[in-house]
Amino acid sequence: MQQPLKTICFGEILWDKFPDGKALGGAPLNVALRLLSLGADSSIISRLGNDDLADETKDELTSHGIDQSLIQTDTQLKTGIVEVELDDSGSASYTIKKPVAWDEIALTEENKQKVTESDLFIFGSLACRSKTSRETLYALIDTAETTVFDVNLRTPHYDLDQVIELLKMADVIKMNDDELEEICSYLKFDMNTLKDGLIFLSEFAGANTLCVTRGSEGAILLHNDNIYSCDGYQAQVIDTVGAGDSFLAGLLFQLFLNKNPGLALHFGCALGALVAGKKGANALIPQEAILEMLEKG
Predict the structure, then answer these.
(1) Predicted confidence (pLDDT) at residue 151 exceeds the cutoff of 80
(2) Which of 44, 118, 168, 244 could bridge to 8 as Cys pair (CB 3.0-4.6 Å)?
(3) What is the largest CA-CA distance in the chain?
(4) The pTM is what?
(5) Which pLDDT does position 1 carry in this prediction?
(6) ∠ at Cα 53 (75, 155), nearest 5°?
(7) Structural domain count, the chain
(8) 181 is in which domain, residue-wise?
(9) Beta bridge partners of 81
(10) Count of other CB atoms within 10 angstroms of residue 203
(11) CB of 80 closer than 8 Å to CB of 97
(12) Residue 128, Cα to own-chain centre: how many angstroms?
């Protein structure tokens, strides 16, 4: 019997505040929850405040059934909050509060051991905005078997020099087309096509797997010197919050369990499209719905 994929995500747990309500999120948590729903052994290293929002967070995480043993409590800083605005097309923009509890994620023997035992250690750039969480992340990367960097740039909360460092530490890299263009420009590489940028950045970072998403137009994957593409799947977009996170979860789950890069890319794109057609990042998406979308093409 195949063992479940063991994954640990690192970084922000926060509440997305919309004009009509709030929803639990944060890219690392969204990825962790989606991996859990697909059948992975999934957990997250993060930090909450000692407040009502933290209690609400724990209750919701309990309802999802995710391991909370690596989530720390901060007695000084509050649980993270993000103000989310959606434009007419459903695309999201974010105002991220600072400082909050996940800015102070501490290094512990327990989280070091858990990362060592995991198959995949997944992180983004946002948690690097503070010294404490950044130093913890760097220490954990050193203990990981396979590292996954979900670039996820959020203005003004990133430093491109730090992003370059993280690229060089990653075995798998995922970003969107705007991020690829920004990073290639910073590195003085004149990118004519997305494939040019993919190949350049893969060689620069020394990563065997690099994926670039293109919104509704799908994604391109470079894996072990082969390039795969998917033109995306049609969905009636309600909001795009968490769609890229679910894409990454689907891609990783299929890529590392079934070892089929082409299928993994299409699976991730279909899952991302289905999430964009629902409200919130962590809507229930049955695997049957993903398979049905794949069959329709």
Answers:
(1) yes
(2) 118
(3) 51
(4) 0.95
(5) 56
(6) 90
(7) 1
(8) 6-296
(9) 15
(10) 11
(11) yes
(12) 14
Give the Cα separation of 251 and 57 in Å (integer): 26
Sorted by sequence, the CB contacts under 8 Å of residue 133 that are 6+ apart come out as 11, 47, 102, 103, 104, 105, 127
- Asked, for residue 190, whether it belongs to a domain, the answer is yes
Whether 1 is in a domain gets the answer: no
Q: Is residue 168 part of a domain?
A: yes
In angstroms, rounded to a whole number, what is the distance separating the alpha carbons of residues 236 and 125?
30
The answer as to whether 181 is a domain residue is yes
Span 67-109, pLDDT tens digits: 999 999 999 999 999 988 878 776 777 789 899 999 999 999 9
Render pLDDT for 189-237 as a digit per residue (tens, 0 to 9).
Answer: 999 999 999 999 999 999 999 999 998 899 999 999 999 999 999 888 8
Cα–Cα nearest to 221, from 273, 261, 276:
261
Tally of residues, the chain: 297
Answer for the pair 80, 46: CB distance below 8 angstroms, yes or no.
Answer: no
Closest CA to 51 of 76, 21, 83: 76
Query: What is the pLDDT at residue 90?
Result: 65
Task: Label the pairing between strands 6-10 and 41-49.
Answer: parallel
| Residue 153 phi, psi dihedral angles, 5° rounding | -70, 130
CATH number at residue 103: 3.40.1190.20
Round to whole Å and give the CA distance between 43 and 45.
7
Helix (H) or strand (E) holding 114: helix 109-117
Classify residue 175 by burial, with Cβ atoms within 10 Å: 0-12, 13-18, 19+: buried
**CA–CA dist 7, 70 (Å, integer):** 13
